[in-house]
Amino acid sequence: MLKDQTEIRPTRRYVEKQEAVLAAASRLFNHKGVRGTTLSDVAQEVGLSTNSITYYYRKKEDLVVACLLRAIGEMVEMAGLAAREATPPERVRAFVARYFERLARTASGERPEMMSFREIRALPDSHAATAFDAYNDMFRGIRRLLRDGEAAPRGAAERAALGAAAHLLLSLTTGAAAWADRYEPQDYPRAADTMVDLLLNGFAAPGTRWHAPGALALPALDMPDGTQEAFLRAATELLNEQGYRGASADRISARLNLTKGAFYHHHENKDDLISACFERMFTVIRTTQSRVEAGPGSGWDKLCAVSRALVDYQFSSRGPLLRLSIYGALPEDMRQSRMQTMARLSARFARFLVQGMQDGSIRPLDQSVGASLVNGMINAAVELRRWVEDASADNAPELFIRPLLLGLFAHD
């Protein structure tokens, strides 16, 4: 657990050095992953010995929790300030604007990075409860931003819709860190306005109506045998939960009740399997996009169809897709090429937006930001069950796709 700070006199020098430790650790955890970062790495960043780091945090897990609580605290503060606004749309605008303001201050070097929440599940049980309790409290605060009035939601359906909308808002807001660097720091407010416009007003042109599209047949994947497919699913799940270094050969094999020898019978090393996981995901997304694009319908019809097909995949026995947050902790030689491929696939969603703007089914909008939000929504669907217990492929279109494409508060 975290060291009792009452044991240490909180001098100005102590506080400044502790802040430096937290800033360096957050940056390293974001770029190398929790398991890929050592206390020695953090010490080197701030010019201390490893023993000196333990003066502030006895164990690496204590430092991870401290970084997470620091980031969660900032998000809670943003939500608290946004809660002062009178209506849910005004609160959404204020919350997103404050997050982009924080991103701009990081981009300009004024503030250190906030730690990503992607590896919170990688913490041991002794530390996970503290982080999860704080995260859940933060989530509840963001969910309250979307409530119209103080009354609690009535009925299971209303609670499910509110939980899904809060997950969508939080995921797309924090996910903006992956694409906001396309802009100059002084242009971040404009990017925030663009994102808010899409969150509040959706993608549909006036007169375009929502209809839950049927799921497309998913593309057949060329896999050698059932065992290899099982390895890919198990590795994908572990990568999503534990990050690159947490998805070890031992853990992957144990999840399938197989020996480590069975793992190496099918793969030369872990990186070969992880590369195959990425290629599998890219094939699913690319083939689904191409199949939808070649089919009939307006740009709006195709946007709904591709969203439904890929969200459906997240809930299927063949899913999930890899989370976008996994890229930060990949080795450098693996990271760049995978990020470039994913960026290209994300940009392909813009084709449906452009077609819709041309045929009048989608309103004029920034297709680059729109494509990023669609990709982020599809990616975030993998965790929808965490906030909506009975979420499934059947109700996810209404719970998760519709609020993005029509707007968070659209009722028509």
From TrEMBL:
<dbReference type="Pfam" id="PF00440">
    <property type="entry name" value="TetR_N"/>
</dbReference>
<keyword id="KW-0804">Transcription</keyword>
<dbReference type="InterPro" id="IPR009057">
    <property type="entry name" value="Homeodomain-like_sf"/>
</dbReference>
<dbReference type="InterPro" id="IPR001647">
    <property type="entry name" value="HTH_TetR"/>
</dbReference>
<keyword id="KW-0238">DNA-binding</keyword>
<feature type="domain" description="HTH tetR-type">
    <location>
        <begin position="225"/>
        <end position="285"/>
    </location>
</feature>
<protein>
    <submittedName>
        <fullName>TetR family transcriptional regulator</fullName>
    </submittedName>
</protein>
<feature type="DNA-binding region" description="H-T-H motif">
    <location>
        <begin position="248"/>
        <end position="267"/>
    </location>
</feature>
<keyword id="KW-0805">Transcription regulation</keyword>
<dbReference type="InterPro" id="IPR050109">
    <property type="entry name" value="HTH-type_TetR-like_transc_reg"/>
</dbReference>
<dbReference type="InterPro" id="IPR036271">
    <property type="entry name" value="Tet_transcr_reg_TetR-rel_C_sf"/>
</dbReference>
<feature type="domain" description="HTH tetR-type">
    <location>
        <begin position="15"/>
        <end position="75"/>
    </location>
</feature>
<feature type="DNA-binding region" description="H-T-H motif">
    <location>
        <begin position="38"/>
        <end position="57"/>
    </location>
</feature>
